[in-house]
# Entry
Amino acid sequence: MSGPVLHAITTPTVWLDQVLLERDLVGGKGASLSELAALGAPVPPAFAVAAPECAAFMATLGVVDLSSVTPDMLPALREQILAAPLPADLAAALADGFAALQERAGADIALAVRSSATTEDGVEHSFAGQHDTILGVRTVAELEDAVRQCWASLWSERAVSYRQANLPDVVPCMAVVVQQMIRSDVSFIAFTEDPVGEWRDHVVISASWGLGEALVSGMVTPDHVVVAPDGRVAEYTIGDKQFMIIPDTAGSGTREAPVPRLMRSLPALSAEQAAEIATLVRGLAARLGYAADLEGAIAGGSVVLFQARPITTLDDLALAGD
# Structure
């Protein structure tokens, strides 16, 4: 694998499966997807709006020193970001990227547009849930709006408060990942080590029906699956999966739908699927060099991965055990 690239990219957008990229250029999510692609992991095609584009855009709004933004400025700043036109070169690059994804995945493609701050998904701070993800984007105009929405989420009261509490001296910067949205039959989060310390040598999986937003947002109680080192399912607790998020077939975006009653009490993963996920994520964690938290899905019978990040709770557990 070649070394990470930071300064060689001069275009507003960069594909994540062509060269290994640094988080300072494509943010935490973008860097992890770049690394997963380089390792041959099953990830959807994706490109990123480079983080410097956000800083340049903010400068056009008169915000040159991002560290000077104060809490009372936030509502007006978000409104400015959402209303301002994108630079012409970025708008053209987004249109080209959208067309390229259509060529790779089909004309009826829907996109997942994900915030990818340079501070996200680190060893010490995950920033999970602090910034926006927009699903079901189907047009270039919607893609432009979604990029602005991701940038605006960098300046939500919640995100600013989190940064001030955890990284007060870091100047924020936001890349945006534009990824083919997979129509997930089952979504999962897999931990290559138990984040609460009970099964440290086991893979722990949470799984639920539909797209992953229901799972990561806490909308449902997912299935809890523990897979032993030999691939055996050591524990399977079926969760109360009453709702799921699915693509909105009437247009863009997604919608909440009730899970059919018979499916609520069925396991979302078979023993074979759980073992396949565990084998895949264990192998990737060994090559990534850290205990990992990976989000993914089962779609059409195949495993797909959307992102990876270090498990941030393990150091706390190690200290507690000292």
